[in-house]
Write a structure and sequence with these properties.
Blueprint lengths: L3 E6 L4 E9 L2 E11 L6 E7 L4 E7 L4 H14 L7 E6 L10 E2 L2 H9 L7 H15 L5 E5 L9 H4 L5 H5 L9 H11 L6 E7 L3 E7 L2 E5 L21 H9 L4 H10 L2 H6 L4 H9 L3 H25 L4 E5 H6 L1 H9 L10 H5 L13 E4 L4 H16 L1
Parallel strand pairs: 1-6, 6-8, 9-12, 12-13
Antiparallel strand pairs: 1-2, 2-3, 3-4, 4-5, 7-8, 9-10, 10-11
Helix pairs in contact: 6-15, 10-11, 11-13
The structure holds adenosine-5'-diphosphate.
């Protein structure tokens, strides 16, 4: 069976999936997640391939390492075949790690040197990679970067209009959610047209312009804080805003970071970062919630229109991520602004979150797709593993 274990570690959560090669593609055997790591109410849940919960436990998991130990114990108890390799999702690898690759001592050292590009994510990834190395020294490990997909962007997109010495220090547009975009491009297969925009709308949210399967522009930049407003992140601001906050409101770097990443976006505007709650509040007349949704949808529509300019037209628009997949309200509000591009939704299809939600008369096809980042990591790892054997 030769399973590959995929690990996606966040600041206080760890998702995992065990994949086997079946009929030329990766097939999920089990998946699970450990949440609220670092609290005494951490939960570990494991689901089988049909999505049935086969294990649940609530206890104290102090660290990512402890969560992984617990996952290994449960995997043994469930008599799951042990993995032959481990693939890690790494959000940011800095300027020198931008292709999916096997993790060597040198790669790990380079990743550690890039810590200032993602001060929360990189240490968590390094900790779990080192732990796997200690516990399963025989297993090859691979790093898959969210930035890798965007390496095809032209210089006119990845360069910022600031002096070159800062570019030399790594200040450039990297772009994120690359594993999600790659998964959608893979799943579109033969149905992938030339000019595509994908809107990945989850808690983190970004859009990518994709020409003939390759990223040519994206809304996030040096870090995942940029682009459209998100659940708790501000997205793009006039650069004068942080300067003003530093000078006039006396915010230091940490306070600014917390503000821009954790206390801005939908949460700051509408009082909650949960789109379902915002929609409920807006429907019952809460004007702040309505404004938050309006700002969010307007920004997405503006980004799609600008990407249509980048692509020289638009054949397909894909909505993905928790909001993209489930919020017919957001999709309608975005698409209603884009009629001039030839986008027309079919209301019944949109309300049902059907696979294709555009009207038959629409010049642009509009789809709703689920993204499978872990499966995409398993695909990359299988290829890398074969190249190494
Ligand atoms: P993450 O980026 O953390 O993986 P998700 O992709 O799961 O997040 O997206 C989370 C967002 O999706 C939340 O804002 C949540 O409210 C929203 N969401 C999930 N289901 C629905 C729904 N049925 N209607 C509207 N929004 C939804």
């Amino acid at each position: 069976m030769k399973p590959i274990l995929v690990i996606n570690s966040g600041s206080s959560s760890l998702k995992f999936g065990l994949f086997v090669d079946q009929g030329g593609d990766e097939h999920l055997v089990v998946r699970g997640n450990a949440d609220a790591i670092g609290s005494d109410r951490s939960t570990l849940e494991i689901f089988d391939e049909q999505g049935n919960q086969i294990f649940k436990e609530t206890r104290c998991l102090d660290s990512q390492k402890e969560a992984l130990n617990s996952i290994s114990e449960q995997s043994a108890a469930l008599k799951l075949e042990p993995p032959i390799a481990v693939g890690h999702r790494v959000v940011h690898g800095g300027p020198h790690l931008v292709t999916h690759q096997r993790i060597t001592a040198e790669v790990l050292a380079t990743l550690q040197r890039a810590v200032h590009f993602a001060p929360v994510h990189i240490p968590a990834a390094v900790e779990i990679i080192r732990h796997v190395e200690r516990v399963f020294p025989q297993l090859p490990q691979f790093a898959c970067f969210d930035t890798a997909f965007h390496q095809t962007m032209p210089e006119a997109v990845y360069r910022y209009p600031i002096p070159e010495k800062y570019f030399a220090a790594g200040v450039r547009r990297f772009g994120f959610h690359g594993l999600s975009y790659a998964s959608i491009v893979h799943d579109l297969g033969k149905d992938l047209p030339s000019k595509v925009v994908i809107a990945h709308l989850g808690n983190g949210a970004s859009l990518a312009a994709i020409a003939d399967g390759k990223s040519v522009d994206t809304s996030m930049g040096l870090t995942p804080t940029g682009g459209i407003p998100m659940s708790t992140r501000a997205g793009d601001l006039d650069p004068g805003v942080p300067l003003f906050l530093i000078r006039n409101q006396k915010l230091d770097t940490d306070a600014l970071e917390t503000l821009l990443n954790h206390n801005s976006g939908l949460k700051a505007l509408g009082g909650t970062n949960d789109m379902r709650e915002l929609q409920k509040a807006s429907d019952s007349g809460d004007s702040k919630a309505a404004l938050a949704i309006e700002i969010f949808c307007r920004s997405i529509a503006k980004t799609i229109a600008s990407f249509a300019a980048v692509l020289g037209g638009l054949d397909l628009l894909v909505f993905a991520g928790g909001i993209g997949e489930h919020s017919s309200t957001v999709r309608a509000s975005v698409c209603d602004r884009l009629g001039f591009l030839g986008i027309a939704l079919d209301a019944a299809r949109n309300n049902a979150s059907s696979a294709v939600i555009s009207a038959d008369s629409s010049k642009v096809r509009v789809r709703v797709m689920s993204t499978e980042e872990e499966k995409q990591i398993a695909r990359y790892c299988r290829v890398l593993l074969q190249a190494h054997s």
